[in-house]
Design a protein that fits this description.
The structure is a single chain. By secondary structure, the chain is an alpha+beta fold. It contains four helices and six strands. Strands 2-1-6-5-4-3 form a six-stranded mixed sheet. Strand 1 and strand 2 form a beta hairpin. The longest helix is centred in the middle third of the chain and has 16 residues. The chain starts with a helix and ends with a helix.
Length: about 130
């Protein structure tokens, strides 16, 4: 499976609501960075930290949280997913959409790191 196929499989799992499938390419040493300013900002290592600090938190705080992939850029050992997040905050009832880029870096056929780059302003505005 190519690097772009690995990332495409992650996004396909996301579309199905399959968290285990989304976390499948994340190894014990993979770092996952959520952007500064984003509600879940930080760097987490391995699937358990990503599950707890990103996806469980999103599920707790948002209804209908989605990532819609607009473009997948195959750079070999670096793959970039461009798209948009959308959700409704469970407390405020406000919705948002935000542009986002995901940068996936590989070491051979293993995901070495994931980095989120996002317009956090609409996300934070939906919370406050």
């Amino acid at each position: 499976m190519s690097t772009v196929d690995v990332v495409a499989a992650h996004y396909a799992a996301s579309d199905r609501g399959d968290l285990d499938g989304m976390l499948a390419p994340i190894t014990a040493t993979t770092t996952w960075t959520e952007a500064a300013g984003f509600p879940y900002a930080g760097t987490y290592t391995g699937p358990d930290e990503v599950r707890a600090n990103v996806f469980a938190a999103i599920g707790r705080d948002w209804d209908g949280y989605t990532f819609t992939l607009a473009e997948l850029v195959d750079g070999g050992q670096t793959v970039v997913g461009l798209g948009e997040y959308a959700a409704t905050n469970k407390v405020s009832g406000r919705s948002f959409t935000a542009r986002v880029a995901h940068v996936w870096r590989f070491d051979g056929d293993t995901v070495a790191s994931f980095e989120q780059i996002v317009d956090s302003a609409p996300v934070v505005a939906a919370i406050d």
